[in-house]
């Protein structure tokens, strides 16, 4: 049974409105207090109101819902774990994330299109996943007494994956886990890894009219960044080129003061599991260009291969990271979802309701295949 467009639109709209309640100042267009940039800015409202909406929605439909507390962040963060019947142990888990990146973009319906923050990444996936599970229940392909499928919607995916790390504390395991992210309706064969890079330079403050006694930390850092940009990063046939983005630069207090400190944060999308070799290449490139720059690597994760043994799907290798490596266990992993990553995190994030309808059928197929394969 195909879910109606009104159900999918209602779910997506409700998520967007919940995000607005999480961050009313942003929703009203008021300026937000300045914050120190991070590698991934914390999700708007931490998914708090979205989680409450989902809890109410699922409980009204007979699910047992556990709102799991998640440490960290700037508020009351909770994962939403839901299942039918009396046992929380199921064969299949369907999961995505309910946090988003700032800034807030209000929900808007433009004809058959849904616009707003998170419509693609990843409230559209959440809506399609719920609709798919409800549809399978209606056609009795998922047992209403439980045991077949559970839902997990986590916070913190956009900022350190604290939600999925906390989900490991549930102490559960599954035969298959179906992750929801924007894949343009294709089944992912794998995605690139991540290497975060922090760079810092220390100078000596002084008057800009007499720079000789001082040292300009920004100049030191810029030379290091130039070396970083020229580093020969490794590639692979399956994942392509390793890419680099310098996303944050900080330093200085005024244009007439030599800056005493400067820092930058970069993110490398790894196409190879040669993580240590890549670190060595980066350190050498930076230090050859500017010996005074300190280089650290706060986090690394090699490329992630993903199961794709389900017929009827085009496949794709993705350049972004997901929560897949953060969920422990011996289970098959599938990654699929509506929308394009090219509009995610942008000021024109949107998708068409028809894309959600296709995603519902995709999730139905993946869940059904997982249940038949066990």
Can you give keywords for this protein?
5-stranded antiparallel beta sheet, alpha+beta, 374 residues, 8 helices, Alpha-Beta Plaits, 6-stranded mixed beta sheet, single chain
Topology:
Layout: H1 5-22, H2 24-27, H3 48-59, E1 64-70, E2 77-83, E3 92-97, E4 108-110, E5 113-115, H4 119-138, E6 149-154, H5 162-167, E7 176-180, E8 187-191, E9 193-202, E10 206-207, H6 217-229, E11 235-236, E12 240-241, E13 243-251, E14 257-258, E15 261-270, H7 275-289, E16 294-296, E17 300-301, E18 304-305, E19 315-318, E20 332-336, E21 350-352, H8 353-373
Distance between the termini: 24 Å
Uncertain regions spanning at least 5 consecutive residues: 16-45
Q: How confident overall, as mean pLDDT?
A: 88
Write out the strand line-up for the largest beta sheet, numbering strands in chain order: 1-2-6-3-7-20
Number of helices: 8
Q: How many strands, which pairing sense, and closed or not: the largest β-sheet?
A: 6 strands, mixed
Q: CATH top level of the largest domain? A: Alpha Beta
Could you say what the CATH topology of the largest domain is called? Aminopeptidase
CATH superfamily of the largest domain: Zn peptidases
Basic shape:
elongated
How does CATH name the architecture of the largest domain?
3-Layer(aba) Sandwich
Question: What share of residues is helical?
Answer: 25-40%
Number of strands: 21
> What is Rg?
23 Å
